């Protein structure tokens, strides 16, 4: 016999009034005002209050999560997102080399203090698109240049000429679909002051 599971949300605390009689082999999981209850629709086999749940578990409906949710490259299907922010990774100064680590975030803000060789690390797995924005700021001296990773491809095959005026900012966007074998680079805007 197949097992049937019913998931219910009820504002009443009376288990039996919220559930019909279930057949043999069926059971129900219900949330009421303050707990989860598992049983056969007549008898509660187990009850667990929301306060007993680990902090990373949400109720079946509703609820607010705080802290960090790590999905480790697992798929989320058809979400509707609202008021979403992205981590801004500020590398205060570049020196002669700087690494853009995608595991740290998807918006990177680097102030160039020397001619700098960039490295892109930890892209998403092949078959998954990964995109990041790069804010390149000239320091108060200016005239800083960038050496791009060999994996970066540009429209027309030529890297853009960066703004080298002191204290100016260029914004670039990079996308990969093959785990960083190729990064497609594009200029979003230049010479912001």
How would you portray this structure in words?
The strands form three sheets. The protein has a six-stranded mixed β-sheet with strand order 5-7-9-12-13-11, with no helix packed on it. Strands 1-2-3-4 form a four-stranded mixed β-sheet, with no helix packed on it. The chain has a three-stranded parallel β-sheet with strand order 6-8-10, with no helix packed on it. It is 2% helix and 39% strand. By secondary structure, it is mostly beta strands. It has one helix at residues 15-18, and strands spanning 4-9, 26-31, 35-39, 44-49, 88-91, 97-101, 107-112, 116-121, 130-138, 146-147, 152-154, 169-176, 183-192. The protein folds into two domains: 4-52; 88-192.
Give the structure's gist in a few sentences.
This protein has 193 residues and is mostly beta strands.
- Class of secondary structure makeup: mainly beta
How many separate domains? 2
Mean pLDDT: 79
Please report which band the strand proportion falls in: under 5%, 5-15%, 15-25%, 25-35%, 35-45% or over 45%: 35-45%
Q: What oligomerization state is this entry in?
A: single chain
